[in-house]
TrEMBL record:
A Pfam family that the UniProt record links to this protein: PaaA_PaaC
Protein name: Ring-1,2-phenylacetyl-CoA epoxidase subunit PaaC
GO molecular function: phenylacetyl-CoA 1,2-epoxidase activity
KW DNA-binding (keyword) present: no
Gene Ontology BP terms: phenylacetate catabolic process
Gene Ontology cellular-component annotations: cytosol
This enzyme's EC code(s): 1.14.13.149
Source species: Nonomuraea jabiensis
Signal peptide positions on this chain: none
Length: 278
């Protein structure tokens, strides 16, 4: 082995090719913006994207055909990119949100947030974390998630925090594709065979109790999201579910049993090597 690789084994294992995603960007919190509130919002949006990305990535090599397999993988990568930017912004706005690591650890803040928090510290909506089902399940989940996320990112494009506004503007383009992809497949499954429609309706019924959490108590946002979903339901001939929302919210750290195993798999390598260079 060459001398350049003979020293620090952690560098050899993980490499050093990743840079700070906010390098060169002024991350000063603007006057009048509460840093803690900004960090909390970025953390919620970043956790949503991170966990949803992980669930979509589990579909790799399982989609009905190669084109949809690639589409799902690309959407997972879109969300992973959003997660990295948002978690980085959260850490820059309020370093206190970053979990403590061993002294001298080279792990960047966004990785610390992703890999060194426990389930109750995550602030993602529960819709993102529930276990995958069949193809109809991923279509319904992505439709509900992307319609709400797109409406929220549209608003955040005018955020007083220019970093969050820029991240939102980039995300709008990506999530628009996600919404359209899910909407087309929702219509296809609804108007396809009796079996495809049955599976779609079953997935919608199973996931609907998680939908209200996406908009929370924001009535205006909820009305905007409902209008889009009602349009999809009308065109596809699918009735709007009447199931009541589940109590509690992932925003407060109340999660389903599915999040723990997801994080255990996602975090195992980083936690085994907390001083590794990524």
């Amino acid at each position: 082995m060459n001398d350049e690789f003979a020293g620090d084994s952690s560098q050899w294992a993980f490499g050093t090719g990743f840079e700070d995603p906010l390098a060169g960007v002024d991350t000063t919190v603007p006057p009048g913006v509460d840093a803690a509130e900004l960090a909390a919002r970025c953390l919620m949006l970043g956790d949503d994207a991170l966990i949803m990305s992980q669930r979509l990535a589990e579909w790799c090599s399982r989609a009905p055909d190669l084109e949809e397999d690639i589409a799902l993988a690309n959407m997972a990568l879109d969300l992973l990119g959003q997660a990295r930017l948002l978690l980085s912004r959260a850490a820059a706005a309020d370093p206190g949100v970053v979990p403590a690591l061993p002294e001298g650890s080279p792990v960047p803040a966004e990785d610390a947030l992703a890999y060194f928090r426990d389930a109750e510290q995550f602030r993602n909506v529960r819709l993102a974390e529930v276990e995958n089902g069949d193809f109809a399940h991923v279509v319904v989940r992505l439709l509900l998630f992307s319609v709400a996320r797109l409406a929220l990112l549209e608003r955040l494009r005018t955020s007083r925090d220019q970093v969050l506004a820029a991240v939102a503007a980039k995300g709008v383009k990506e999530i628009t594709y996600h919404r359209d992809w899910a909407g087309r497949w929702f219509l296809t499954l609804a108007q396809g065979t009796e079996e495809s429609r049955r599976r779609l309706v079953a997935a919608l019924d199973a996931l609907w109790p998680y939908q209200a959490e996406l908009t929370g108590f924001d009535v205006e946002l909820r009305d905007e999201v409902d209008a889009v979903l009602d349009q999809v339901f009308a065109v596809s001939g699918v009735e709007r579910p009447e199931r009541a929302p589940l109590p509690g919210t992932g925003r407060d750290g109340a999660h389903t049993d599915a999040l723990g195993p997801l994080l255990a798999e996602m975090q195992v390598v980083a936690r085994a090597h907390p001083s590794g260079r990524w």
